[in-house]
Each structure stands twice: as structure tokens, then as C-alpha cells.
């Protein structure tokens, strides 16, 4: 197919992560804050603003947590196990009762929307676990991803196959037979099938080798270059912050540090406590 109409196909061969850091040198912001890191040109594209909430009738897990991402930007959430990173993602996606605070997409308050309605509004979510149908083929997984589409989704599927060529080769195989890295490609591809404006990824590189991780990060950068915002939780904190426009360190359900990826990587406190020195 032609590459001219393929939004995932831009800038091949140029994977310099620095191009994702538009604006360059911003001021160091490692103060304890729950405010958004972005400038206030009308607010960030997606923001979970000052979110407090927990599961069911249980205690609050999030305490005034704020997470945001702008158009085409990569925002990364890091922090210790159990800090509430996945919970924050679920709150932004509408899978958690947000008792205080709000979620806004493109300036609109979507706090009351169901997850399905958020998909319709332009959000894609790849959860940390059970993010593919293992007994279905790769292609069936992508078709499931297109569930809200009433138009022809074949061109989008071709774009996903161009982004992850191995999936085209394995499209008739049950997804459960694929390697860990390939399964994550299926999960990301499935989420892309709704043509989201913002893609939320909870630990997309969990359990994969460093080489496969680099490869996945390159593909994620490629997706961001098409204008899709990426909000991602990562265990590989150092590597993820290297490709991040913006980073958040969450501790016990609250923002501990936030700033550009570069700032956080350079911050002695963040390095010592969260990046292994
Ligand atoms: N479905 C759930 N029901 C109740 N508590 C949960 C649930 N999922 C996570 N938690 C609790 O929320 C806290 C934060 O978990 P989580 O968001 O998964 O952390 P992280 O993703 O940063 O490792 C933990 O104390 C965890 O036990
Ligand atoms: Mg988690």
C-alpha cells in the first residue's frame, strides 16, 4: 500500500528520541505538587485532575493525584510497586469511582463517562494484565479492538500491520502462541483499531527483553509522532523517562515529583530513590 496516507509510517529511520521533546529546556520542577506540569494554553489535552478515589467502598488509593498529557506528547508515570500507577490509569479511563477531582479530555469534563463512552470520545487503553484474547487469532484480536467502528476498519488494520509487521505474518495464529513482546504489540494494535486520540499503556514492556523494549519504545514514539498522545506507566523507569516529554513519580497515590523526562533523570532525589542511583 502507499505510505502517503499512513499515519503510522512517518519518519521511518529517524528514531531520535529527542525530537519528542519539543520546547527543550524548561525549568526544573521537582517540587511536591499535585498541579499539572503543562502550560495553561487552555489546559492539557487529557488530564486526571486532583483525583482522589479507591475501589468500591474501600479506602482511597489516590490522594489528589494529577496526571496529564498534551497532543502528540509522551507522558510517563513511574513509581514503586503498589504506588497506585495502575489505579491512576483506571481512574482516568473511568474504571474507578473518582470521589474528588475530575477527568477532562480536550477541555470537556468526562468524569461521568463510562469506559466505553471514553473509547468513543477518543481514548484507547491497554491494561497491565489480560490485555489480549489469547485463544483468538491476532487478526481476531484486532477486529475485537474495532468494536465501536461502523466504518471500514481494514485501512487501520493495515496501518497496525505496517507498524508491527510481525503481526501481519502471524495474523492467523492464536495470540496466546506469540512471544511476550509480540503479545504486547497485539495489545497496542488492538487499542489503535479505534483510532484513538490518546493511547494509555500500562507497562507495555513488562517481561520483555531490553532489545524488545527498545523496539516497542521506538514504535510508541512513532505513534506519538502521528499526533496521538501517549500516557504510559513504566517499570523501566530510566529508559521510559528518556523518551518522555513529561514524567510523574507517584508515591502512595500522590504526585511525589513531576517534570520533563530530562529533569527527572537529572534530579538527584529521583535518581537515588527511584532510578537506582
Ligand atoms: N481491584 C482492586 N481492588 C482493591 N484494591 C486494589 C485493586 N487493585 C489495586 N488495589 C490496591 O491499590 C493499591 C495500588 O495498586 P496499583 O494501582 O495496582 O499499584 P501500581 O500499579 O503502582 O503497582 C495497592 O494497595 C493495591 O493493593
Ligand atoms: Mg500497576
Automatic annotation (TrEMBL):
Entry annotated with the keyword Nucleotide-binding: yes
Top-rank taxon, per record: Bacteria
GO molecular function, one term: ATP hydrolysis activity
Swiss-Prot/TrEMBL keywords: Amino-acid transport, ATP-binding, Nucleotide-binding, Transport
Regions of compositional bias (Basic and acidic residues) in chain numbering: 9-24
UniProt KW Secreted keyword: no
Cited PROSITE patterns: ABC_TRANSPORTER_2
Annotated spans, Disordered: 1-44
The name this protein goes by in its record: LIV-I protein F
